[in-house]
Amino acid sequence: xxxxxxxxxxxxxxxxxxxxxxxxxxxxxxxxxxxxxxxxxxxxxxxxxxxxxxxxxxxxxxxxxxxxxxxxxxxxxxxxxxxxxxxxxxxxxxxxxxxxxxxxxxxxxxxxxxxxxxxxxxxxxxxxxxxxxxxxxxxxxxxxxxxxxxxxxxxxxxxxxxxxxxxxxxxxxxxxxxxxxxxxxxxxxxxxxxxxxxxxxxxxxxxxxxxxxxxxxxxxxxxxxxxxxxxxxxxxxxxxxxxxxxxxxxxxxxxxxxxxxxxxxxxxxxxxxxxxxxxxxxxxxxxxxxxxxxxxxxxxxxxxxxxxxxxxxxxxxxxxxxxxxxxxxxxxxxxxxxxxxxxxxxxxxxxxxxxxxxxxxxxxxx
Length: 366
What we know:
Elements: E1 2-11, E2 14-19, E3 25-29, H1 36-48, E4 67-76, E5 79-88, E6 95-99, E7 102-103, E8 116-119, H2 125-128, H3 131-145, H4 147-172, H5 180-216, E9 223-228, H6 236-246, H7 248-254, E10 265-270, E11 273-274, H8 275-278, H9 281-303, E12 308-312, H10 320-329, E13 335-339, E14 352-357, E15 360-365
Helix pairs in contact: 3-4, 4-5, 4-7, 5-6, 5-9
């Protein structure tokens, strides 16, 4: 898969720009705060329907504009795909997704038309942050590859909210406690689907990440992932039902649900020690980069064609050896890179270079 064109209007600091990238390495170069990352953000928006930097879509709309529009066209084995996202400051529908000329009814219909892996400075939180960051990491990956997984996540979130609302009502009216059984069953059904997909994906990511990390570190470090879930066992559904029942009295007292896949985590270790607690800044950065390369491999094998790779201000933070290893590993996929100095990409295969200044692409070429 490769992106044939990207067009943005009223997005971040861009009034309007149309980008025609090459199928190899595309470099956005220029000083900081000129709009390089905004182009990767627009691509990521077309992949997932959301920004990687903010949960508030109105922040993506250019100052003084009422709406923003992002359109990406990709070429895949089955033909050409086009997606458009419309963001509005006002109105009943503030986000509209179009697949070709058709308006999508659900955001999940977006997945697969533009498939990509993004590595940005914010991704260090996958290692440094709490379990929610690591759940988001695996959930965004699986949602792009398996729409059914995304819908299971949505159902689980709705069910969790409804169960928590019921727990608050039980505090006022204890006779409602018998109603929890229905929500427990629904939460366990959705949770089992999520658990099984996460567990299988983490096992595969651990294998791919270990290989990537060995290359990046010259074989000096060993990276491993382990999925941690309350639903562990031969039957995740039954395990969740057992745990939900056992925790019912405490949940009623606290008026919130203490059991479920919303508590899952992924343990990331370097040389057998938890990277979050014991890893240096350099080890944590290399671990995240290895995870992203593993995501790329997983998506490639699952889809049968390569996704795009987006690297935001990565090269300047790597030592020459790890930079060289990274450049060798991205040689086979369409890549979008931001940098402030072209010397950071010394040794990369030739592609297209776009100079960015104040929301404008001044020049482009091979």
